[in-house]
Amino acid sequence: MNTLAEILMYLSLIVFTLGFVVNSKYIILLANKIPSGAHWLVYIWLILLFGLAQWFGRSADNTTVTSIDSSAMSQVASIVLAVLVLLVYWGKYYKSSNMSLPFSAFLIFGVLGILTVPISDIPILSLFKASSFVVSVLIAIIAIEVLKKVKRPELLFDIVYIYFVFIALLALIGGVFLPDLTHRSAGGAFGFILKGWPALNSNSLSYVAAVVFVVSLRRVFIKQAFNRQFLYIGACMVGVICLLLAQGRTSIGSSVIAVLFMSYYLKDMRSLKYIIFFGGISLFVVFLLSGSVGNWTDTVSDYLQRGSTDEQITTLSGRTEAWAISWDLFLESPISGYGFYAAGKTLLAPHNAYFTILLNGGLLGFIPWFIGVVASLWYVFRNIKNKLWMSKSKDNAFYIEIMAVLIVQFVRTLTGQDLTVHSYPTLLLLSLVVYVVVRKKIDTSDTGSPINKNKSSEKVINKGADKFPSVTLRK
Q1: 35 DSSP 8-state letter
Q2: Phi/psi of residue 175, nearest 5 degrees
Q3: What pTM value is reported for the model?
């Protein structure tokens, strides 16, 4: 194992462990902090996330296997439980006013996926995947009324964040203790690329780590008790080291853009003192190992190239060639495509969300899906000029945080198949849109003068500050 990589992994695990220990009482009692009436929602969202830990075909050690095998049973079970929850709570929490444009467009996309099952070469798998997408959207829709009632719009997003920290932490543990399972040989600065443990490809792990890094970094800057701040420092280190070792270049680039975005809007992040601190520590470690920092431009170049040839770099590791082939395939079946989940299974994997949807559903599926994507961006970013939502105070910094996460998400769609099926990115996006919709409903339900409305809204956002791990808002 590369000595520097080993030191970085051990260092991040030690810091996070110390942060966990000094916050152990808070973490152990975390379940007691869930608002009354929202327990079922928290648990089903976690179940949906845990269900995605196994991919179809994993038991055969081949993720392109097109049959439903034993490795996918956790995913099947999670969807079955989600359907049961829908049957129990739909009548109580569904309101037509919550069927806003992003959700309705995504629902149409999923339903069309179900209807086009007959044209798929893998009908059972296509049916399950399309149905799973519909179920996750429906759960998000009924979550709106629940979160409005308990006044915790950030709850679903916090659950996804906690779970992503868990995934990144396991990847580093696997990287230290199970290198045969988690290290994929590659050239470049480290000589290997880190994969997830349990199995998760390096690109997906990079995306998860990027979200952990961006969110944790923002929360490090909040004025709070040092023990809580130390926990976020540990999570930030887990995220950034996991991101560096997984070497997802798109995720690294999107993280930089997201951090610059936050540093522009958040006064306390403009100094980026913690990034400077971590950078200084990293350079110090390199100096101890090599006696100098060496030619840093060559080191960065080796890292970014990670053993790829010049031809692979210019074609984005073959992605541009895959896009050209995908376009030709789309033109052969432009209306209905080849069936939900066909790309990457019976067809090549385009490594681009937009081409993936064109192959899976043709224009019939692409139009509602794209409307849902654009509407999601609009719903989140339309408040960027709202003085209440974009104030420089830390009380409203959570909104800026989710915009930064959305930047990571949508840069990833250019080189990954994100948001095309029920997946981690889909659940994250739904969490972000739910937050915005719920907060808007809470704001508009307030009465009184504009000043009172402003105070009331801040009170709502602050109410859950110490009740869940976001701890993002000053009490």
Answers
A1: P
A2: -65, -35
A3: 0.86
- The answer to whether 46 and 31 are in contact (CB under 8 A) is no
The token pair that represents 361 in the structure block: 């559903």
User: Which of 245, 170, 230 is CA-nearest to residue 4?
Assistant: 245
Least trusted range by pLDDT, from 3-7, 82-86, 265-269: 265-269
CB 353 within 8 A of CB 343: no
Tell me the C-alpha distance between 375 and 429, whole Å. Answer: 11
- For 56-84, give one letter per residue: b (16+ CB within 10 A) or e: bbbeeeeeebbebeebbeebeebbebbbe
Q: For tokens 């929202």, what's the residue?
A: 38
Strand partners, 200: 196
Residue 472 CB coordination number (10 Å): 25
Q: Reduce the DSSP state of residue 465 to 3 states and report it.
A: coil
Residue matched to tokens 């296997």: 65
Choose between 11 and 462: higher pLDDT. 11
Q: Assign 23 to helix, strand or coil.
A: coil
d(CA 266, CA 264): 6
The position carrying tokens 């470690």 is 285
CB 368 within 8 A of CB 111: no
Check: CB of residue 337 under 8 Å from CB of residue 365. yes
Residue reference for tokens 């439903």: 68
Which one, of 385, 387, 382, 395, lies nearest residue 432 by Cα?
A: 382
**Mean pLDDT of all residues in 313-340:** 85
Confidence category of residue 61, pLDDT binned at 50, 70, 90: very low
How far apart CA 61 and CA 65 sit, in angstroms, is 9
Output DSSP code: residue 350.
-
User: What mean pLDDT is predicted for residues 327-335?
Assistant: 94
Strand, helix or coil for residue 258:
helix
Dist CA 243 CA 255 (whole Å): 9
Contacts of 159 (CB under 8 A, 6+ apart): 42, 45, 46, 49, 431
